[in-house]
Design goal:
The protein has helices at about 90-105, 120-130, 140-150, 160-170, 175-200, 225-235, 240-250, 255-260, 320-330, 345-355, 360-375, 380-385, 390-395, 400-415; strands at about 20-25, 45-50, 70-75, 265-270, 275, 280-290, 295-300, 310-315. By secondary structure, the protein is an alpha+beta fold. Strand 4 and strand 5 form a beta hairpin.
């Protein structure tokens, strides 16, 4: 259509607009389509015409009218190019119509042919229906958000392995193989959902993308020399929590969220036990806004551990150094939680001071595991100590087997503090 649609004096009539959209006065109660040539562009709406799938309602037998949502004002259409006199106003309108149609389809109000459904539409639905309920919704939502920037504009049934591989190379250049594979897994799960639950596609294109080889046997842990420097640095830290938290982490091998979820009633100094029952999560998804973005609550405590277990018990019977630190620390504490403060900045500062590179708090857990295995502790017993998810069938009885962690606790303490 070569005419300028903003020139309403030459309005051709809705029948000549193509049947996918129409013009209607903003004040439709007092004005009609016949009045449009006498109106200003800001007084006329562009309406989409979107079929809802069924032409006859099977319950009532009445005709089902198409949806007619407003897209924009005529005044918001692009102006013609001053040199060529042309403007893709129809293309602009059809793009708005497509976006509106996908939005309505998300709520089940409209049907969308495969060729019109975009990858971004699938990601939006998957986040609302599935990711929203994940314990860790932040990580997959951020991964999918980055995929959306690269492939979100592609029709769902046109996305192939070559396009995903090209996007992967752009998004994840310089990332570790494990990170690359995690991003691919997030997108793959999204497509699996489209196949099994939405029935929008028949094949998952991510399955044809090669994953990078990951060496899972390599984990960062503190050498004995690094640990000695680290412990010396802890003696001079100004943080009231960091010293005890780090000794606690490397002895128990717990996750950071499990340590921050610990309350003093979880530590029994008479029975010499530490009972992990809660996890403090940095971000917990509590909803989703109109734009499809996740709404997060920070530092929320949940009544389960990260692996889904309700209880993990560690014995302190053979950890006298840790027990002493905790008892002295409790005398200074005036809070319900054992480790209420976020020590992230103090931890990083200490690592720089001790000249320890490429190390995270979670690597204290790896250090604990490494010390156990290097000292000859069987993998299953090490798993008891760490609360590994892979041994959930055994961990349901872990709180009845405190004698197991008495032995592992003794091994870790001897490696850290020397033989007694």
């Amino acid at each position: 259509m070569s005419i300028n649609l903003k020139d309403l004096k030459k309005f051709p009539g809705n029948k000549k607009l193509g049947g996918e959209f129409k013009f209607i006065p903003v004040d439709y109660r007092n004005k009609t389509v016949e009045d449009i040539p006498n109106l200003q562009p800001h007084e006329v709406n562009v309406q989409a015409i979107i079929k809802v799938g069924k032409t006859i309602d099977p319950k009532t037998g009445k005709r089902v009218r198409p949806l007619r949502p407003n897209l924009c004002l005529v005044s918001e259409l692009p102006d013609p190019n001053p040199k060529t006199g042309e403007a893709d106003q129809v293309g602009f309108i059809l793009n708005l119509r497509k976006e509106k149609k996908l939005e309505l389809a998300s709520d089940g109000a409209a049907t969308v042919p495969n060729g019109e459904r975009l990858v971004s539409h699938l990601i939006k639905v998957y986040k609302e229906k599935r990711v929203l309920n994940f314990k860790d919704a932040w990580t997959p939502s951020q991964q999918l958000k980055r995929w959306e920037t690269e492939v979100g504009h592609i029709p769902l049934d046109e996305l192939d392995a070559a396009q995903i591989t090209a996007a992967k190379n752009i998004l994840l250049e310089g990332r570790s193989p494990k990170t690359v594979n995690n991003y691919l897994s997030a997108l793959s799960s999204c497509f699996d959902y489209a196949i099994k639950h939405l029935h929008w596609i028949n094949a998952n294109p991510v399955k044809n993308v090669a994953k990078d080889k990951v060496n899972n046997e390599i984990d960062r842990y503190m050498t004995d020399e690094e640990r000695n420097r680290f412990f010396e640095g802890l003696e001079s830290t100004k943080s009231p929590t960091l010293k005890v938290l780090c000794h606690f982490g490397i002895n128990t091998g717990c996750r950071k969220g499990e340590a921050h979820g610990l309350t003093w009633d979880n530590i029994d100094f008479e029975l010499n036990t530490i009972s992990f029952t809660k996890t403090k999560r940095i971000r917990t998804c509590v909803g989703i806004d109109k734009a499809g973005e996740m709404i997060y609550e920070r530092n929320k405590v949940t009544p389960t551990l990260k692996n889904g277990s309700k209880l993990k018990v560690i014995s302190m019977k053979n950890m006298p150094e840790l027990r002493k630190l905790l008892m002295e620390y409790k005398l200074r504490s005036n809070c319900e939680y054992v480790f209420p403060q976020d020590t992230q900045h103090s931890f990083r500062f200490l690592l720089e001071k001790c000249n320890i590179d490429n190390f995270r708090f979670h690597d204290l857990r790896h250090s604990c595991a490494s010390y156990l295995v290097q000292s000859g502790v069987p993998l299953l017993e090490a798993a008891h100590h760490l609360g590994q998810k892979d041994y959930n069938s055994v961990l349901r009885y872990a709180h009845l087997a405190e004698d197991v962690t008495e032995g592992t606790g003794s091994v870790v303490a001897a490696r850290i503090y020397g033989k007694r």
